[in-house]
Amino acid sequence: MSTQIPLPALADVTAAFEEVYPPEWAASWDAVGLVTGDPEQRVGKILFAVDPVAAVVDEAVSWGADLVVTHHPLMLRGVTSVAANTPKGRIVHRLIRAGIALYTAHTNADTAAPGVSDALARAVGLVGELRPLDPDTTDPEGRRGIGRIGSLAEPVVLADFAARVARALPETAPGIRVAGDLDRLVTTVAVSGGAGDSLLGAARAAGVDAFVTSDLRHHPASEFVEQLGGPALVDTPHFASEWPWLADGAAHLADALGRRCGPDGANVEIRVSTTVTDAWSQAFRGV
């Protein structure tokens, strides 16, 4: 006779997660928290992913996930319909039909310490103490904020550092773009997971040798590199720069579940999605 393994309720899982990434840390414009799911449903399998898109739902359904935790929100902007013939509606209907809950941790995970940029910093080789690039002024300890600044164990030339970034992140069609002298030495680095050209000024003021971020626009990047003395730029696909956080988020949730739910939490299986959900699926170059 088999004994059924006790599993925590969704409400307990989200409460454990919010101990690490409180929703109140999110930006005022953001949409974080539970999107679909019954707080009383039991959770045995949790899938972490960057984007709440069809390919991730396919993976969740195939694996039998009870909960998907994504970094990017499904409902960031207001909608007036979740009809199944709309992109967002299709996702909602598929999740509900499959009994899969969806939870989002976005800018609250960005500003957390450790958060999204800490994971990116470690992935590209920064060691030792990290500090925020754009500190959260509401944090009395001064640890939270957007972006991180740190140092490499040994200086490397920009070309080698960019290659290291490319190896550390998931492979995507656009790849890594670089602006700057490929022979310059890189010791200190600022990183910011996700779109970061609003932080170009902060990166320059920090006096770092390179700034790793995503979604750099042509004009701000062009004007930035024309100014002498600033950091080199390493532009990564948005999805790729935030993917390293998934393993961190999963590990922190597992720890929090163990503390909050005891043996019930220990029975939860957590998986990090390796599905590439970058918006750009192909890059073409002329001969």
Characterization of the model:
With 287 residues, the chain is of the alpha/beta class. It has helices spanning 10-20, 54-63, 87-98, 107-111, 116-123, 158-168, 200-206, 218-226, 238-242, 245-261, 263-266, and strands at residues 33-36, 45-49, 67-70, 101-104, 126-135, 145-157, 177-179, 185-195, 210-214, 232-236, 269-272. The chain has a six-stranded mixed sheet. A five-stranded mixed sheet has the order 1-4-3-2-11, sandwiched between helices. Helix 1 (10-20) crosses helix 10. The longest helix has 17 residues, at 245-261. The mean pLDDT is 95.
Q: What is the overall number of helices?
A: 11
- Which fold name corresponds to the CATH topology of the largest domain? Udp-n-acetylmuramoylalanyl-d-glutamate--2,6- Diaminopimelate Ligase, Chain: A, domain 1
Radius of gyration, whole Å: 20 Å
Query: What's the mean pLDDT score?
Result: 95
Q: Number of domains in the coordinates?
A: 2
Quaternary form: single chain
How many beta-strand elements?
11
User: How is the main sheet built?
Assistant: 6 strands, mixed
Helix % is 25-40%
Overall CATH architecture of the largest domain:
3-Layer(aba) Sandwich
At the fourth CATH level, what is the homologous superfamily of the largest domain? NIF3 (NGG1p interacting factor 3)-like
Shape: globular
Structural class, from helix and strand content? alpha/beta
Provide the β-strand percentage band.
15-25%
* Strand order in the largest sheet: 5-6-8-9-10-7
Give the CATH class of the largest domain.
Answer: Alpha Beta
Between the first and last Cα atoms, what is the distance in angstroms?
67 Å
- The run of helices and strands is HEEHEHEHHEEHEEHEHEHHHE
In the predicted model, the low-confidence regions spanning at least 5 consecutive residues are none
